[in-house]
Specification:
The protein is mostly helical and 191 residues long. The protein contains six helices and three strands, in the order H-E-H-H-H-H-H-E-E. Helix 1 packs across helix 2.
C-alpha cells in the first residue's frame, strides 16, 4: 500500500527517478542556452516535450530551482557593487583582494554560492545552473510563482500511446488574445 506516499514512481526505482527528474529539469534549463551552431540545438527555447506524468513530476523541481535562484538576486546585485572587472592574478586583481571591497563582496556572495550549490544538488549540471542564475531567475524576478506550464498534446506517443505534454516556461511563448471587433452593418440603400 502507498498510504500518504507522495509522487509517482514512473515505473523506476528511487535513484532512477531522481536521475530522470534531474535530467528533465536540466534539459529544460539547457534549452535556454545559445546553441545555434550545435547539432542538437533545441527547436524552441524554454520548452521540452515529454510524457504527461513526467512533466507533472518535474515541474516542482524546476519551480524550486527558480525560487532558490530568485531569492539570491538581491545578494548578487549587492556583490556586483563591490566586485572587480580585473582579470585573475593581475596586479589590479591582487590589490582588490587586499582591499575592504573584497571582504564586502565575499560576504555578499556567500548566500549566492550556497544557493548555487543547492541548485547543483537538485539539477546535477553546472551549465544548467549557470543558465538558471544568469538568464532564467532574473526573468521571473517580479513573478510570485507558477514559472512553468504544462500543455497536453493531442497526439499520443507512437509505440506505446503515452500521453505527451509540453513543459515550458511562462512568459516566453504566451499567446496574446486579440479581442474581436464587433461587426458593423452598413445600411443597404433601398431601391
Amino acid at each position: 500500500m502507498r498510504h500518504r506516499r507522495k509522487g509517482r514512481t514512473l515505473g523506476r526505482n528511487p535513484s532512477h527517478q531522481r536521475a530522470l527528474l534531474r535530467n528533465l529539469a536540466s534539459a529544460l534549463f539547457l534549452t535556454e542556452r545559445d546553441a545555434e551552431d550545435e547539432d542538437n540545438a533545441p527547436k524552441v527555447k524554454g520548452r521540452i516535450i515529454t510524457t504527461l506524468p513526467k512533466a507533472k513530476e518535474v515541474r516542482p523541481v524546476v519551480e524550486r530551482c527558480i525560487t532558490i535562484a530568485k531569492r539570491v538576486l538581491p545578494s548578487m546585485e549587492e556583490a556586483a557593487k563591490f566586485g572587480t572587472t580585473a582579470d585573475r592574478n593581475t596586479q589590479a586583481w591582487k590589490d582588490w583582494r587586499k582591499s575592504d571591497n573584497y571582504t564586502k563582496w565575499n560576504q555578499a556572495m556567500a548566500p549566492v554560492v550556497n544557493a548555487r550549490r543547492r541548485a547543483i544538488r537538485l539539477l546535477g549540471d553546472k551549465q544548467a545552473v549557470r543558465i538558471l542564475f544568469a538568464d532564467v531567475a532574473p526573468r521571473f524576478a517580479d513573478r510570485q510563482g507558477g514559472y512553468t506550464r504544462i500543455l497536453k498534446l493531442a497526439k499520443p506517443r507512437l509505440g506505446d500511446a503515452g500521453d505527451r505534454a509540453i513543459l515550458e516556461f511562462v512568459g516566453v511563448h504566451d499567446r496574446v488574445r486579440a479581442k474581436s471587433t464587433k461587426p458593423t452593418f452598413e445600411a443597404q440603400p433601398t431601391s
